[in-house]
């Protein structure tokens, strides 16, 4: 079982060059399938469509539609490898169906600007080194719509104080942006570097609050959720750092900023990546909505 998973991992790296995250999902899916077959007294060599249907039914029983679609898509990749490497005799990848997911069908979760301001105000009052650090991160998240990895990867050399610029390496696309270092984030960063950041040789801006003061590895979701709770703000829908990213896109869109410029700020490669935020302009969509004919409404 483990030998087959390791062979698949090697193939994904050497033949496909897949990202670590994609490889992790596919490794897990292959192991889950092999484990299920073993527990049900069968093997990969005799895998047939009824077995596969039974596995999928047990695997996605409590999942939502989008999660089910992701599992099916990942499983198809596993099955194609198993067929191409002669582990199974029949290509079963196209024989399994998943739920239809329409492009940009979900509306991103956002926070009202007044609630963001309240979260920032409450966070600003915490003058402990940890509080100063968290406030600076929240300012960057809310101002520039950064991803969690972009905050963690920000280095001291990325802040150009003389020219009031900040250099962002976008973790998802690999693109780089040079953005204006606005007064609010600049003040929060300066305060953290002066009063909150411990003495360390680490070149990342934000470091752990306890020794050995290495770069942050995780925790931004926890920082945001704690700040939201402290401010007494209630959210509906998804939670996490991306909520501030969506909110920033919404505010830019509402201010009349073009989709192209919003994409440049957020680090998207193409307009397609930014198009999802058009759904946030609900007031604009209502203004262009057509009235239903009278015979339809009566």
UniProtKB/TrEMBL annotation:
Lineage, top ranks: Bacteria, Pseudomonadati, Pseudomonadota, Betaproteobacteria, Burkholderiales
Domain Tyr recombinase, chain residue ranges per copy: 106-290
Core-binding (CB) domain segment(s): 1-83
Keywords: DNA integration, DNA recombination, DNA-binding
SUPFAM superfamilies xref list: DNA breaking-rejoining enzymes
InterPro entries the record matches: CB, DNA_brk_join_enz, Integrase-like_cat_sf, Integrase_catalytic, Integrase_recombinase_N, Integrase_SAM-like_N, Tyrosine_recombinase_XerCD
Protein name as annotated: Tyrosine-type recombinase/integrase
PROSITE patterns given in the database record: CB (PS51900), TYR_RECOMBINASE (PS51898)
